[in-house]
Amino acid sequence: MQDIMNATDIAFPHLGIYLENVPKGFSIFGFHIALYGVIIGLGVLSGVLMAAYVAKKEGVDPDLIWDFAIYAIVFSIIGARIYYVVFRWDAYRDDLLGVFNLRNGGLAIYGAVIAAFITLWVYCRIKKQSFLQIADICVPGLVLGQVIGRWGNFTNREVFGEYTDNLLAMRLPVDAVRSVDISENVAAHILEGSNYIQVHPTFLYESLWNLILLFIMLLYRQYKKFRGEMWLLYLGGYGLGRAWIEGIRTDTLFIPHTTVAVSQVLAVILFVAALAADLLIRVRMKRGESTPVATVSVNKGRMQDMSVPAETGQEEVRPGAEEGEKDKTGSGTAVKAEPDENTDQE
Fold it and tell me: What is the C-alpha to C-alpha distance for residues 271 and 311, in angstroms, rounded to an integer?
């Protein structure tokens, strides 16, 4: 067992992994570049590529995704910063210029996600696209970006949890982490003569959880029954995992003047809301009632809009308009109403 660790070391002792000289960044021409930013950038690029790929598979122009990504990146950063500052206001009330200093850290993923979905809603209204359809396309990429992005927290030695001695326990040198992230419980378990803390690698838990969620999305995507189903799967699936993970983190953001973790509350609300919405839509589809979203079926890998609940597997046919038979218009063919492209309904 290593009793003394260098400031750049990271270890997973129960796995036999001892990493030495793990850098937080590097310099190019005297300009310091944080690995955190590089990894986040790779996550964003990978996520956009994933979303563009899914769009192409579903017959949607990938350029819509690339155009949206430009706005989403900008407003997501703003949203992530606002979320963090609001719930850490005591740290900025006397240093307002510090709000704009992103190089000192302080971004919250839930703020980024909320801002991204608001941006998507506005974008879809302007482009006359279905928000739910595009959201379904984008969420696999969003999850992939989170899977990769969490490893930026690894190089930053942040987003860890309370003390643990489980299989995945992680050791970090005390002088490599922020003092405010070392809870009383963590400090109480620092062994005499050692200079490290041993904690839950919550960044790893979240990355693995999101990886599982991504696989579920990719496997289930071809079987989805209605627009918005993948979006609800993301909101509920991520919320479920985050509700647990947030409970053991030491850098939690709290609702002002309370000890209630704001992201944990939000995660529970999103999980419950997504589950309730999914169940309600399925019940209404089973009863044959109209739903607030378009139902879909799979035809050769491409999602097709259907005018009746997807479980029937048939399109609506106007009575008296069978093949070769004229309808009342005398056109000889049945006329099927086109869905309004600016709504999420048929």
Answer: 25
Q: Which residue has the tokens 């703020």?
A: 111
Pairwise CA distance, residues 156 & 249, whole Å: 15
Neighbours of 176 (CB within 10 A): 20
Angle subtended at Cα 54 by Cα 52 and Cα 57, rounded to the nearest 5 degrees? 110
Structure tokens that stand for 244 in this block: 């647990």
- Decide if pLDDT at 69 tops 80: yes
Confidence of residue 60 (pLDDT cuts 50, 70, 90): very high
User: Alpha-carbon distance 232 to 212, whole Å?
Assistant: 16
Distance CA 272, CA 100 (A): 35
Question: CA 123, CA 68: separation in Å to the nearest integer?
Answer: 7
Contact 79, 87 (CB under 8 A): no
pLDDT of residue 324: 44
- pLDDT digits 0-9 by tens, 101-156: 776 778 899 999 999 999 999 999 999 999 999 999 999 999 999 999 999 999 99
- How far apart CA 283 and CA 250 sit, in angstroms, is 41
Asked if residues 201 and 170 have their Cβ atoms less than 8 Å apart, the reply is: yes
